[in-house]
Amino acid sequence: MTKVSLDDPVNYWNRELSWVEFDRRVLSEAKDKSIPLLERLKFLSISASNLDEFFMIRVASLKDMDNAGFKKPDISGMTPREQLKALSVATHELVTEQYNIYKKLAAELKKAGITILKPTDSLTTGQKEFVDRFFEDYVYPVLTPMAVDSSRPFPLIRNKTLNIGALVSNKTDNKKEIEFVTVQVPGVLPRMVEIPGTKNGRILIPLECVIARNFGRLFLNYDILSTCVFRIMRNADLEIDEDEAEDLLKEIEKQVKKRQWGEAIRLEVENEVDPRLLDRLKSELMIKKDEIYDIDGPLDLTFLMKLYGIDGMDGYRAVENEPNPVVELPESEIIFDSIRKGDILVHHPYQSFEPVVRFVRTASKDPKVLAIKQTLYRVSGNSPIIAALADAAENGKQVTVLVELKARFDEENNIVWAKKLEQAGCHVIYGLVGLKTHSKITLVVRMEEDGIRRYVHLGTGNYNDSTAKRYTDVGLFTCKESYGEDATALFNMLSGYSEPATWNRLSVAPLWLKDRFLYLIGRETEHALVGRSAHIIAKMNSLCDPDIIRALYEASNAGVKIELIVRGICCLKVGIPGVSENITVRSIVGDYLEHSRIFYFENNKKPEFYCGSADWMPRNLERRVEVLFPVEEEALKNKLKHILDTELRDTVKAHILTEDGTYVKHSKSGKKINSQEQFYAEAVAEVRKAGLKDKEADVAVTRRFIPEEHK
Amino acid sequence: MAKLFAAIDVGSYELNMGIYEFGQGEMKIIDTVNYRLDLGTDSYTKGRLPVDKVEELCRILREFVRIMKGYHVTEYKAYGTSAIRETRNTRILLDQIEQRTGIHVDPISNSEQRFLDYKSVASKGKDFSKTIEKSTAIVDIGGGSMQISLFDKDKLNVTQNMMLGILRLQESLMELDASPGKYDELLEEMIGSQLSVFEKLYLSDRKIENLIIVDDYVSPITWNRTKDSDNPGFVTANRFMAFFERIREMNPDEFCRRYSIARENLGQVYIAATLIRSVARSMDVKTIWAPGVTLTDGIAYEYGERKKLIVIDHDFEGDIIACARSLSRRYMGDDKRSQTLENICMTIFDSMKKVTGLSKRDKLLLRIATILHGCGRYISMYNLAQSSYDIIMATEIIGLSETEKEIIAGVVKYDHAYIDYDIETTPTGNLGKEVYMRVAKLSAILRIAGALDKSHKQKFNDIKAKLQDDTLVITVRTNKDITLEKGVLAGRADYFEEIFCVRPVINQIAKI
User: Fold this and answer.
1) Chain A: residue nearest B72 by CA?
2) Contact (Cβ atoms closer than 8 angstroms) between residue B170 and residue B193
3) Domains (ranges, CATH) in chain A?
4) What distance in Å separates residue A637's CA from the closest CA in chain B?
5) Min CA distance, B412 vs chain A (Å)?
6) Model-level pTM?
7) CB-based contact (8 Å) between A370 and chain B?
8) ipTM of model
9) For the segment B364-375, what is each residue's pLDDT rounded down to a tens digit?
10) Least CB-CB distance to A492: which of B33, B36, B292?
11) A345 vs B190: which has the higher pLDDT
């Protein structure tokens, strides 16, 4: 195959359209009748919040490019304008599908005893009284009605807020001039108001309906001609010019405040809106026709996530599997002693994240520990890790924490942690100019009888005990010297010191990681070319790096068997003759968010396994500090191979990428394998086999849900 | 329990700190931090560091202190190399640094620095011992100069500094304003002119097989490319030459990517590689070894050696002495007489240990003084004292500080002339009373030794000395007539007595 044909844009999918396909897969879970009703509502909610973020980041970015006259085509040969056009069609279809599903789920919810009222639904006298009283007592005091006229400019409509716009005319104005007024649906009140005292199940009325019913009371001297609920989405791509920011913290605080002022890029309106009202919104918000979404149902379906927790509906939720204890890391043993016995691989959320917290917590109190160093990207509220780090500093340990302020949408949160840690005496560093620190690594330095020993935890997921219950990730505990040296060097590098002359085990982006991957893929190609069996299995969240895809195509052509498990975006095309005939791609969208990155290279029957924080995306490989680490112990390699093999055999939650770019699920016949369920069952069995106490091994029944994450 | 030590190198373009662990007779590096800071340019051109550079330097050193505390480091040693040494206000600068950071930085001479670099190579243990079994050279490339050292068997015996540092050559190229296409040729010429002198002086009768390279540019690449091989750091000369050709031929970006080097360092890599190639070709070596060591390794190794925390097979003092002997030969020194003087001096030194207050290091300086004491004859028989002094001061002796070199030069000078009572007027006057007294004491011993071999006939080979109250009884077993020596000794004994309050006397026992 010639060089030209591999680079031909026709061989690549556009990443944005591929993302829409991913959201469609999430949405498909909401259609799956085998899943409990509230879980399906949750998937619908996730697909909606995913789409919101997609607009704010990706669509916004394309708009910026288009506005700047940027015409360079992407990997698939599409200019920003062409992409926007195609996306408009795809997202309109997606939204239509979301509301088709919503209607079906709302009907089922009604059967289950919960009715969500539509604006057109009539209320009984008693219900009316309740709703109007609720408006009077709770809603009215927090509303700020705003009128627009020559002396009052069009108000700022805040990003992602629900608003009710209306056309009104002054009762005393003989000319009957039409004016525009608007009021924001307050975010401080619950979106759904339950109307009490009904016999036939529970009735919920959307807050915007409560306000709309009482709109006249906000504008007493006016006739209300028409009302419409609307919502806008603004450009939120946060770019910080670090070179110019004297103080990164202050700059980010400033940017966060500025975020809601971005350009409007999407307008959602209730369908059957008064055309005059829509025209007014269009002109004031400077929004084009294809950026308007007529919504046949309640706007902003993310409220469904709140509904998920509604009481008295346990039968409509899935049983959550509580993470299992890690057999190799018993609580009765000092964690450092356990790690000294050999490397330990932990598979979350089937296995608990607790040992990771315990690792830091024990270190914070252990008299032999000299220093703790950790990268924090996204941490949970009330993070026990933050508390342990602060304790450690107060206990006289040297604590160095890299807080990545640039974690999107988490900036405000991160600034709070950073200040808290600094107050406790931790040495807080903010990473490298121009590069997000995405690597997940913890280093504990301990002075033992025979000298310094370093304990390292490397992971594919963030140090977030909350998401660790919902994301699938792997983590490695080790005290091998080679890993310890590299971890030390990495933290020095992140502190602004020079890069070490050599790395023992870790491959670090943006320095050498991409080269490493290209080398590993290239090595398989060479094996295949000389007739040896060659095989790559790679599991990640997204695949869109052109160099990597090209290398995979070359490998495929050479005869390498390539099996990819890519949850989200995938720009690689399968099944193109002479390009990718040996490549298969599957995406697993299940109860847990697939998040681990695991790479297998057969290497002429001497298989190598790697895990890491990086996807095969240019931003991960070129603009972030990422770490790829090898897993070398035979038992752990087998464990990783088992994870990959099981996911490749999944017939329940796997979607297979087809030649036309769509994803299809397995046919319903044959043995059903749900990899996530199998991993959980295996983790339970392992605990039982090890004879851990029931208390530790028992499966608790709690909720579970898939969080939003969108690349 | 292991002991932790920090070694700090305040270098010309980088601040480096290594944290080392000593335990079970071994040294292990735990952590290294390197921070780019160009102190050299200001120091070399203006003779002082601007305020912002001093601020930055102190900030990083405070960071180093924080890291040291983190490891519970109990002892450290910080050296400042040429950028610190060449500031005109060195003492003020170092005081400021100490006040603001708590770090005491000692300026270090080129010869001490090179010797530490050499020790850092030696810290590689087996690889080092094995390499120097065959004839070996070390090329140590710095920013301002390059040092070539040669081994004779397993002893270092020639070391020569040449003004061929990477930054210096780079500046020369810039000054010449030549097109990059001519760099090759110009570098060859600049390097060749100095290297040819070295070749004539030292390489005509030697065959060098191994070349050890110490530098910041080519060594890391070599190490990176070979770290997974059976012999990490070792490459054949042919492989190195092929690498050099690739620098010349490959697209610079492609080259940087392939060898994982920063684009801005490519110029320095090229110059370093050219220097190594020139040296390797002039010696026709077979193997090149890049041990990947740093000055901090040498500092830590020396600390471990001094504190007896590590087991050391190699005799480093022997290297310094071997170099001094080689230097003496260059100035037509009399080996036999040197050895006689050395023998007598060491005997007297040891017997006087209780009363002199001199250290083991002073003993080494005295040994070197005995080796070099007559070098001035090469220039003038008449003005021997001053000529010897001048030669020693103008020559670099590896492993010695400037002060130590001045002590040796002073001792040699006062072997041939009377010491001045006025400290200020002595050549070492600016170094203070302590140095003056060391010169006085060592020269007093050397003068006695000189008296005992006045005839240059090595009559006193079998000699013993014993301190008895205020008398040093020097017993010699010889049948030869020592009237001359006795006479000369009588004159010099006054000076010895004045210094030590001990009178040397000769007790001759005839051999039967």
Assistant:
1) A370
2) no
3) 16-118+301-316 (1.20.58.310), 142-242+263-296 (3.30.1840.10), 335-502 (3.30.870.10), 509-673 (3.30.870.10)
4) 21
5) 45
6) 0.83
7) yes
8) 0.75
9) 999 999 999 888
10) B33
11) A345
